[in-house]
Design goal:
Structural class: alpha/beta
CATH class of the largest domain: Alpha Beta
Number of helices: 12
Largest sheet: 7 strands, mixed
Helix content: 40-55%
Number of domains: 2
Radius of gyration: 20 Å
CATH architecture of the largest domain: 3-Layer(aba) Sandwich
CATH topology of the largest domain: Rossmann fold
Number of strands: 10
CATH superfamily of the largest domain: Vaccinia Virus protein VP39
Oligomer: single chain
Length: about 280
Amino acid sequence: MSSSAERILASLLETRTGQQLTLARRWRIDSALTSILREHGFAHLDQLVANLVTGRNPRLTETVIEALLNNETYFYRDKLPFDLLLGGPLARLERVRTDRRIAIWCAGCSTGQEVYSLAMSIAADAARWQGWRIEIVGTDLSRAAIERARAGTYSQFEVQRGLPVTQMVRFFEELGGGAWRISDEIRKMVRFEARNIIEAPPPPGRFDIILCRNVLLYFSTDVRRLAFARLAQGIAPDGSLMLGAGETALGQTDRFVSDPDHRGLYIPAPATPQAATPRARVA
């Protein structure tokens, strides 16, 4: 594949999604698009790119964009963040929330494992949360990923990757052929939407906890600033934001500050006159 073809694909991805395909990540192109080449009869990637440039096949363009998106995820990814949420923000909300309602937004949820992990953690302590209404919303730019998340069906490898055996036995049904489906009990606790993080937040629009892990690192500075503005728009005044281990809000935005009580979490910055939401050149 020529370097010009790489640049065109990277530009296409950033223009349509806001995500950057940096030089360090361009090794993914070949593996991500191999099946598309085979399906459409292209001999090599330069032929595919030449077809995309004509703009005559928008469905193919969308298929290529979907393939280039990074949907890496697994159940209880990193584990410690889930323990932090249960012992920190959720425990605080349990003490102070008189209406017994909590809204959680998982932005960039991919195929749903993070959302379901959080739901399983809450369901595993059912007595503690009896009488509470806990709404968990997962969003992702990839419509294909969201369809898989809604289905709640995973391969043997995906289920075993990061999922404790006790959770697998309790909350999954084996379908045969190496497929497992998450229980209706857990699926009723969550909902999924195909939505870009740089769009308006999903309903209900004000969330007590937002997880946005390993999403912002793929954005340029301008798009990242816009994403933080959207997260700020969607978080409750006393809400908590969790980013990925390699991400930070410090020096990136004035909308959030470090949570003094929980290292690794962020809270909305003290109220200031409403600033205009920054614009970014994303289609």
